Amino acid sequence: MLLPKEKINRFLRHIIMPEISGPGQKKLIESKGLVVSPSPESAIPLVFYLAALGIENLYFYFKNYDENYSFLKENLKDFNPDLKLSFLSEEEIESSIDELDFCVLFDEFFIPEKFKEVPAVFALTSPWRGIIKTSKGATFLEEENLLSPESLKKIKENSTGTILSRSFSGAICSIEAAKLVLKIGKTLDSPLYYDLLNMEFNYAFEPVNSEESGLIEENNFRELLSKARVLIVGTGGLGSPAALALTLAGVGTIGLVDSDNVEISNLNRQILHSTSRINMPKVDSAEIFLKRLNPKINIKKYHTRFTPENAFEIVKDYDAVIDGVDNLPTRYLLNDVCVISKKPLAEAGVLRFEGLGMTIVPGKGPCYRCVFPKMPPAGSIPSCSETGILGPVPGVLGFIEATETVKIITGAGKLLKGRLVFFDSMDLDFRTPEIKNNPECPVCGQNPSIKDLKGEYGFICENNNIERED
């Protein structure tokens, strides 16, 4: 046996994938990584996903130690008691060089000369936008000046756009780190430039409109978010990152719907939970974590399954809804109740190394049934319990859902309305094809046949889902 039984249980969804399997998970567990970042706060999403992957030896160098230092240290150890953490001074970094398998340089680019041979992931974030690049050795600083785009130099600490950018970038960087350790997939040898405000992804830098940049950080963002009420259906692989980002962004009220309890096998992707809260209802576990991040947040808990009988009553008081569900029947149910109730819905699903997302604004764009009119029969789509899932992949999609929700609330940017986003983590590729309303859609078409929730929302996920993620 390559791994102890408890670690096999913990990383079950990872190691059933041939690309990782038992030997690959053992390699992740034994690898050593360094995170260089301005502060603990900026690195929270990144380091939780590194820990969720199973990397048990993490070194940190923070230029500044803020109040989140204790939070990060205590909650990472609770998340994975086997984790070995080392917080280094600038003088101690160079002595760790011989032990490292990778480093992540996250908005802080201090690096000794000897590090030039260490595989590295490089990220520069700004409000809503950023650059990510991966190198087999940290010589990329010599290859090109990635700091040149002026619009990406100014980092506004704690702005809404910066929080969302760092969350998204953190999940991507953890995926790239896993690929470096496992030597799988295609790493970002050429920079990825992302724009979450317009949900665009490019591999060549495009200048940002300065007038637009001045509009996206309006002073009333925080006020609008503090008054907002967001419902998240499912607190698993998608719901966890969405709730994390919205809490950091300052959303006033978050509703959490989930009927499950925390299991150890959840912890390879569900970063709201921890080993000390195994067997606790997920909504209670999520509330504990989120209130540690922001004691002022109002959490409404629904420890129940989302059903046709309670759906209208649950969604009625919320401004926007996020799909974090684990089965297709509930996905169709959530789409239908949001369209009928005229509630905006951020939608996503993941499987293995891939994900898909869209934003549904009833009356102003296509809904889920416009793209996928009928529910596939049970067994036609494999579940993650059969095929596995790379933990940070639902993180990427969950952070996209959170970003779309912030844009819904504030009116900023261009929504994924009338577009899909396809994400392939192995090629690190994003595509955003356009989609159109289906005039024959049974719920939002010209003559809808679905006007209530009396239809069939039957089978529960075993072999049926685009994403058995939670």
Structure description:
The protein has 470 residues and is α/β, with parallel strands linked by helices. The chain has helices at 5-10, 12-15, 21-30, 40-53, 68-79, 90-93, 140-143, 160-182, 210-215, 221-226, 239-249, 282-293, 311-315, 328-341, 368-371, 384-387, 392-410, and strands spanning 32-37, 57-62, 84-87, 102-106, 120-126, 129-135, 192-195, 200-202, 229-233, 253-257, 298-302, 320-323, 345-351, 354-360, 421-424, 429-431. The strands form 2 sheets. Strands 3-2-1-4-5-6-7-8 form an 8-stranded mixed beta sheet, with helices on one face. Strands 11-10-9-12-13-14-15-16 form an 8-stranded mixed beta sheet, with helices on both faces. β9, α11 (239-249) and β10 (253-257) form a beta-alpha-beta unit. α4 (40-53) packs parallel to α8. Residues 140-145, 210-215 and 459-470 have low confidence and may be disordered.
Short description:
With 470 residues, this protein is an alpha/beta fold. Helix content is 34%, strand content 17%. The radius of gyration is 21 Å and the shape is globular.
